[in-house]
Amino acid sequence: MFFALFGGLFYTLGLPGYGCLPCLFLGLLLFLYALEDKGPRQGFYTGFSFGMSHFFLLLWWLAPTINQYGRLPLPLTFPVVALLALYLSLYPALWACVYTYFLKKTPRIVLATLGGGLWGLTEWMRGTLFTGFPWGVLASSLHDFPLLIQLADLLSIYGISSLLFLSVLLIWGFIIHLRNKSWKESLYLFLGFWTVFLGAVYYGKVKMNEYDVPPDICAVAVQGAVPQSIKWDPGVMEETLNKYFSLTKEGCFERDCDNKTRLVVWPETAVTTYYQDDSVVQERLQEFSRENGVFLLFGSLSYEFSTPGSRPQYFNSAYLIGPNGDLLGRYDKRHLVPFGEYMPLGPFSELAKHYLPTAGDFDTGVRGAAIRATDGLTVGILICFESIFPGLARDAVNHGANILAVMTNDAWFGRTPAPYQHEAMSVFRAVETRRWVIRSANTGVSSIIAPDGTRIETTEIFVPAVITAKVGLLTDKSPYVRYGDYGFFLFVLLLCVPVLPFTACRQGLTL
């Protein structure tokens, strides 16, 4: 268990927010070392230990966040984080149980393909079951290496995780056979690793040259850096609006943003009132859009009644105003944060609500995933938590989006690894959908990301900032957008199929 626990810690240090990539490989190798000579039951416990240390370090920032904004005493927040880590640890435990079942029966090169496929599959399950929580998946460690993640347009982020873990397993098998002086088998694994690596690099080089198209619009992401402690104070709303107006003008007119079409993205709930009811705010925003000739996308709360006299439904929304001041559309957040924006699980929620009195009571949006601005511009919108789910970005593009806007408020997380972990997922949304991503975060990280995953502009956290870029509007659909997870499932199947003959024959091969 010692090596599994330390493996989980080192593994986490290689993910965004920490960024020590060698630590990630060291952590995974320690984990695999801990699984040697284990049976399925011991493998399950070993994988669970790895998961607990990994997820607790990955998500520790939830404790001070819940303490500060959930009004839960700090000593009680760590058991909450531990409970979440306990659930998430079941996925690497399940992987380790299956891996150790085949450990003694399967050649290492076949075991590597099986393990790589199953790792991606367990991450997909984690990102899908029980509303999903695909935070900090293995592939996110490559967010700074766009050349290596281009296959995400075919396999999604989970396929990249499979390939990366396959590579680690090939390295581990190479080490094992080298230690045993099995030269022939070592050579197979060595060649297998380089085949995977060079194949990914070749695909990356081809794809990264395909999306250098002339710019169609000027995109502006505004970061107000409004402290969460005063964000909702009505007395500072005027100051907040003036700050956003000033930063927007700087981005549009002082930074060579000379295209006719300007798309400005403000963060989630940048307007801290019900826009639909506040005629003064409506007039100011519409006038600003007219005077400056911009499409203005901003976040605000909204509500509506399903039937007269019924309880109002509240939404976390985004509005788009055109250059003539007209309201072009509203988007309502569709994937809410459990225990943050809504309370799931029926009676259990009432108990949780007692300990989390500030948890929201929002409803799930049903409005379309994209807003059509002009004949040539349709904006797909992802609000905060939604940006970590590949399927939501895919849905937006299938609804006609030729650019993606991510609007978020990560001020809740403070100066922790969380804002960086969150932003890294937007890199993969760009590659999966082959769309520009304009990410506006209240306190950062804001970024403008090209369809090949290259960050064109990015910001520091907790400073007012504005970033701009001239971007192209692409219309072609990537294989992932067209076929969804089917490409990933087929890839996993191809990786797992080689183990079938050895399972059927029950041969104790040790190649």
TrEMBL record:
Subcellular localization, as worded in the UniProt entry: Cell membrane
GO MF, one example: N-acyltransferase activity
Pathway where it operates: Protein modification; lipoprotein biosynthesis (N-acyl transfer)
Provenance organism: Dissulfuribacter thermophilus
Residue ranges crossing the lipid bilayer per the database entry: 15-35, 44-63, 78-102, 155-175, 187-204, 486-505
GO biological process: lipoprotein biosynthetic process
Ranges where the CN hydrolase domain occurs: 222-473
Domain of life: Bacteria
Family, per entry: Belongs to the CN hydrolase family. Apolipoprotein N-acyltransferase subfamily.
Main location: membrane
CDD domains, per the entry: ALP_N-acyl_transferase (cd07571)
Main EC class the enzyme belongs to: transferase
PROSITE patterns, alphabetized: CN_HYDROLASE
Membrane topology annotation: Multi-pass membrane protein
Name this polypeptide is given: Apolipoprotein N-acyltransferase
KW DNA-binding (keyword) present: no
GO cellular component: plasma membrane
Its EC number(s): 2.3.1.269
